[in-house]
């Protein structure tokens, strides 16, 4: 598995991919999550070989990109961004990226369950087709916390199995973004992870939960560094993924406000990088 950095997920400011590559090296990360739009522009300007060399020189792998398509809002926005996706996907694939992802709210004020499911399938099918044309998999992130699920009128998908089932209706290249926090808060089990095929897991986020808070009272943006409290069985989580043959990116997403109190981006990178090294060692991945 690949220790991968998403700079803004830990409060690190990187103005462009070159800054982000320096940040990844500083924190001891092997992979980097990138912007599809920035990569497409760089490939247009410099060519794929030059961009690949940029990563090779840094010793960092371009691991994935967040889905750049606005599928949540208006049909006009969705179609506008869908028109841009082939260029972005082609550029990403040209430098070796085969993974993208997005998250899905577990509730809605607008659509009951079946209508919302139909909406997501309709929006994602053409996206998945474009990505498949370039050999890219799409990970859909299920969101677990009860506190968030209850925040809107209609419930929606919040469990891994249900998200995988919807993904099968969207396209053969669709799986899940598996976030340790959402796995824990949705009631996920190690046995469920052990039953997965590696291609069903497109991307992985790791983090931890505050102690002494019942699982149904956990708040989505109040998290800890991977392995910090032990509330989430991160070692078991990562070992289960190793056992099924997952070898893709593992990215910290702690949403820990105290990281912003550290004096510098370098300090944040060192603290988070050390946490990643610790959980990788505990899981037998180092």
Describe this structure in words.
The chain is of the alpha/beta class and 286 residues long. The chain has one domain: Alpha-Beta Barrel (TIM Barrel), CATH 3.20.20. The protein has eleven helices and ten strands. The protein has helices at residues 17-27, 36-46, 48-58, 75-94, 113-133, 146-149, 160-170, 180-185, 190-194, 234-244, 265-282, and strands at 2-5, 31-34, 61-66, 99-104, 107-108, 137-142, 154-155, 174-179, 201-206, 249-252. Strands 1-2-3-4-6-8-9-10 form an eight-stranded parallel β-barrel, surrounded by five helices. Strands 5-7 form a two-stranded antiparallel ribbon. α4 links the parallel β3 and β4 (99-104). α5 packs across α7. The longest helix has 21 residues, at 113-133.
Offer a quick outline of the entry.
This protein has 286 residues and is α/β, with parallel strands linked by helices. Helices cover 45% and strands 16% of the residues.
What is the percentage of strand-forming residues? Answer: 15-25%
- Integer average pLDDT: 97
CATH class equals Alpha Beta
Our measurement of the CA-to-CA distance between the termini, rounded to an integer number of angstroms, reads: 9 Å
Structural class: alpha/beta
CATH superfamily caption: Divalent-metal-dependent TIM barrel enzymes
Overall shape = globular
Unreliable residue runs: none
Q: What is the count of helical runs?
A: 11
Structural domains: how many? 1
What value does the Rg take, in angstroms? 18 Å
The biggest beta sheet, please? Answer: 8 strands, parallel, barrel
Q: Fill in the CATH topology.
A: TIM Barrel
Order of helices and strands: EHEHHEHEEHEHEHEHHEHEH
State the helicity in percent bands: 40-55%
Number of distinct beta strands: 10
Q: What's the architecture, going by CATH?
A: Alpha-Beta Barrel
> How do the strands line up in the largest sheet?
1-2-3-4-6-8-9-10
